[in-house]
Amino acid sequence: MEKATNIFYMGKGGVGKSTSAALNSLFLAQKGFEVLLVSLDPAHNQSDIFEENLSDTPKQIVPHLTAVEIDQDRWIKRYLKDVHNQINRTYSYLTSFNLEKYFKVIKYSPGLEEYALILAFKEIRRKFLQHDLLVFDMAPTALSLKFFTLPSLSLIWINHLLALRKEIIKKRELITKVRLMKKEIETDKVLSKIEDSVQEYTALKELFEDQERTKINLVLNPDLLSFAESKRIVNGLKEINIFLNQVIINKILCDSSCEHIERELSGIPIIQAPFSETPLIGLDILTRFLKENEDVMLSQPLKVLMNGVK
Amino acid sequence: MMSFLARMKEMIVEIWKVGDKVGRSKAVEVIETEVEEMENIFGILVLGSFVGMPSPPMQISLDLMPYMEKELILMMEKVDTANEPISQLFSVFNIG
Question: For chain B, first and last CA: distance in Å?
């Protein structure tokens, strides 16, 4: 495979996103695929599920399966430090000195949380492109939706800024032409940065929209509350042109009825995962559960599986 | 006679050049003020959160900030003249 496929696990808090992501990662690794399991949920669960001390540095769990828990705060600090250093390099001493106090509070600004996740995601894609699958265990609905809408929302702003900047440069060129009788050749750094951002956000948006490279799995339970929130996720993603790969109805009991889910989410492949009496914690229990439910795991509409197990 | 005509021609050309310079300079001054205003708007749009205005997602402001010292200083300067916009406009058009 030329480029890694992303598999995201989304859903309401407590429906079993982390366990589903862990089970599928383990299953695919056992089948011989090179898998990296990434927890993007600030309240990490993968350490507890695998009974391992996971951190920001990838750690091997079993052959072919590596896991990492993204430290969101570290990414925010790293990003702000980069911006701060750049300002210190380009600004005069006095201006940069006056901005010091702002940087102490910027880290608490809304919006930086999801941007930190985007930065981590981009870094993971860059570093682990040769893996077969990158499995992302996402945060509950609100933060996940913000994560996916960030490129589209940023593009709206950035395109407006681009138009205004181009207008400014056009007028500036006119002034230089009249004053100095020649055209200004110097490139505008702000314009270059805006154009770079347009490219970056467009690439990210296209990656999220590409159903070949990005698979989004929605996890829900048969209860009405988790179903209602799941419908909001489906609609929220549809608005930004992102479509689901499959729906996993998790923790199904003998008397659970899934008809309403199948009816409302018709057209999206649905797989049903049974409720486990034993808490799914630890490698042995996870492996046993996978053996007992292999048919469920094999029924997922994942191209790598369809192309034949390794 | 010829030298007088030549001197006259030189003078007329000189006057024309000065007039052209003044005309160009006047025309450009208005455009310069317009550009300054546009740069101020751009600064407020991008860095508005630093002066309490609604702003784009924080990462857009922060990504562009290292390249916008000029706009940042301009925004600060504009604060001083913000309460006298009419007098500023009059000075641009040389009224009064």
Answer: 46
Helix (H) or strand (E) holding A141: helix A141-180
Count of the separate structural domains present in chain A: 1
Establish if A253 belongs to a structural domain: yes
Residue ranges with strand state E in chain A:
5-11, 35-39, 59-62, 65-69, 133-137, 214-220, 246-252, 270-274
Q: Which of A91, A153, A177, A187 to substitute to test the interface with B, most B CBs within 10 Å?
A: A91
Question: Tell me, what CATH number does A233's domain have?
Answer: 3.40.50.300
Cβ neighbours of A121 in B, within 8 Å? none
Q: What is the ipTM of this complex?
A: 0.82
Q: Is A189 helix (H, G, I), strand (E, B) or coil?
A: helix
A197: in domain: no
Q: Is residue A169 part of a domain?
A: no
Residue in chain B closest to A84 (alpha carbons) equals B66
**Cβ contact, residue pair A171, B65, below 8 Å:** no
Which of A168, A181, A191 should one mutate to test binding to chain B, selecting the residue with the greatest count of B CBs within 10 A? A168
pLDDT by residue for chain A (310 residues), tens only, comes to 457 999 999 999 989 999 999 999 999 999 899 999 999 998 999 999 999 999 999 999 999 999 999 999 999 999 988 988 888 888 877 666 767 777 777 777 778 889 999 999 999 999 998 899 999 999 989 999 999 999 999 999 999 999 999 999 998 888 888 777 665 567 889 999 999 999 999 999 999 999 989 999 999 998 889 889 999 999 999 999 999 999 999 888 766 677 788 888 888 888 888 888 888 898 999 999 989 888 888 877 776 666 655 5
Q: Is residue A304 part of a domain?
A: yes
| Residue A271 lies in domain | 5-77+105-146+211-308
